[in-house]
Write a structure and sequence with these properties.
Elements: E1 7-10, H1 22-27, H2 32-40, E2 45-50, H3 52-57, H4 61-74, E3 78-83, H5 87-93, H6 97-114, E4 122-125, H7 135-152, E5 158-160, H8 168-172, E6 182-188, H9 192-195, H10 218-227, H11 233-242, H12 246-263, E7 267-272, H13 281-297, E8 301-304, E9 314-315, E10 322-323, H14 325-330
Parallel strand pairs: 1-2, 1-8, 2-3, 3-4, 4-5, 5-6, 6-7, 7-8
Antiparallel strand pairs: 9-10
C-alpha cells in the first residue's frame, strides 16, 4: 500500500457536498476515462472524500459509492477513503456524543463491504481536517474511530489526521496513537497567501489577492505592489519579505519528516495544490515542481488537490476533460493525453 501511496490525486466533490450542492456533485462525476488517465500518468492511488450525512441519508448512497470505488480499483488504483463532512458536522463531533455515534455508524456502513478488499487496495482516512484546535480531543476522537474500524477491518491501514486543518503545525503538535498500522496525514498549502490567492472561502482577504509571486522576495513583489489595492499592499509586501522559495518549503517539510522520524511512524501528504484563479501559471508550476520534488526526496507520499476543479490537473467541469500537460510535467508525471 505504501508504494501505491507515493503519488496520487484527490477526486474532490464526487461524493461530498451532496446535501448542499447536488449540481456540483453531478458535474464532478468521474468516468472510466478519467480513472484510466490517472493510471496512465503514473499515479498509484486516488483519495476519495465521502460526506457521511449523504451516506447515511440516501438509500442508494452506498451502492453509488461502491460503484465508484470498484471502478477505481478496476483501473488499477488504490483508494484512500476519507470521511469528509461539512464544518458544522465536524464541530458537533467535539460537543455531542450523538454526533460521534452517527460518524461511527457511517464508518461501519462503508467499511463493512470494503473489509473484503485486499489490504493493499484501500485505506481508511478517519476524518478530513477535523477543524478542532485541541490535539488531545482530536487524538481521543481518532482513537475511537480507529477502534471502530479495527472491529470491522482489523488488518486494513487507517490514516489519522491531526487537528485544525491538518497543517504541518498541527501535525507536529499531535501525539501518535498507540495503535499500529497507522499512517499520519498532513495537508500542505504553504504559503497560503500564494496558494489561495483569489479564493472565495477561508480568510476574507484571499479573494482580493492576485499577483503574489513564487518564489517571493522584495524584488519579486515590487511590480505587483504598484498594481495592488491599498488594503492588499501590506500583505503583499510582507509576503515578499518572507522570501518563500524552495529552501523555505524544504524547511517546512523537514518539520513533518522529523516528527515522523522521531515517532517512528509513516506520513503522507493527503492534499497540496495551488488555486488557479489568480496565480500566474509559471509560478504555480514552479511551486508544484518544488513541492513534489521535495516530498519525493524525503520519501513522503502525496495526493494532489485535485484532479478536476479550480486546483485541477485537468480542465473541464465534466468528461471529457483536458489534461494540463505542463502541470503534469512540472510534477514529474508521464505526460500523456487522454
Amino acid at each position: 500500500l505504501l508504494d501505491a501511496l507515493q503519488r496520487g490525486v484527490n477526486l474532490s466533490h464526487w461524493f461530498t457536498h451532496r446535501a448542499a450542492f447536488e449540481a456540483v456533485a453531478a458535474q464532478s462525476a468521474i468516468g472510466p476515462n478519467d480513472l484510466r488517465l490517472i493510471r496512465q500518468l503514473g499515479l498509484g492511488h486516488v483519495r476519495i472524500g465521502v460526506d457521511p450525512e449523504w451516506l447515511m441519508a440516501s438509500a442508494t448512497a452506498l451502492d453509488e459509492l461502491m460503484a465508484g470505488l470498484d471502478a477505481a480499483r478496476a483501473a488499477g488504483l488504490a483508494v484512500v477513503l476519507a470521511l469528509q463532512p461539512q464544518a458544522a458536522y465536524k464541530h458537533a463531533l467535539f460537543a455531542d456524543p450523538a454526533a460521534r455515534d452517527t460518524l461511527m455508524q457511517a464508518w461501519a456502513r462503508v467499511a463493512q463491504p470494503l473489509s473484503r478488499w485486499p489490504v493493499s487496495a484501500v485505506a481508511f482516512e478517519a476524518l478530513n481536517e477535523p477543524e478542532h484546535e485541541d490535539p488531545a480531543a482530536v487524538r481521543q476522537l481518532m482513537t475511537e474511530i480507529v477502534a471502530t474500524l479495527r472491529q470491522i477491518a482489523p488488518q486494513h491501514t487507517v490514516i489519522v489526521s491531526p487537528g485544525g486543518y491538518a497543517d504541518v503545525d498541527d501535525l507536529v503538535a499531535f501525539a501518535p496513537l498507540a495503535a499500529r498500522n497507522l499512517i499520519y496525514t498532513f495537508h500542505f498549502y504553504e504559503p497560503k497567501n500564494f496558494t489561495h490567492q483569489g479564493a472565495y472561502w477561508g480568510w476574507p482577504m484571499w479573494v482580493s489577492f492576485s499577483g503574489f509571486p513564487y518564489p517571493s522576495s522584495p524584488e519579486a513583489v515590487a511590480a505587483p505592489l504598484q498594481r495592488a489595492a491599498p488594503d492588499v499592499q501590506p500583505h503583499l509586501a510582507h509576503y515578499g519579505d518572507e522570501r518563500w522559495n524552495r529552501a523555505r518549503l524544504a524547511h517546512a517539510l523537514d518539520r513533518a519528516s522529523e516528527w515522523a522520524r522521531r515517532h517512528g511512524v509513516p506520513i503522507w501528504c493527503g492534499e497540496f495544490g495551488v488555486y488557479r484563479a489568480n496565480a500566474a501559471p509559471a509560478h504555480r508550476l514552479a511551486w508544484l515542481n518544488d513541492v513534489t520534488g521535495l516530498m519525493q526526496a524525503r520519501g513522503i507520499g502525496w495526493a494532489l488537490w485535485d484532479y478536476a476543479g479550480p486546483f485541477g490537473l485537468t480542465q473541464g467541469a465534466r468528461p471529457p476533460r483536458e489534461l494540463d500537460t505542463d502541470m503534469a510535467a512540472a510534477m514529474g508525471l508521464r505526460t500523456v493525453q487522454p
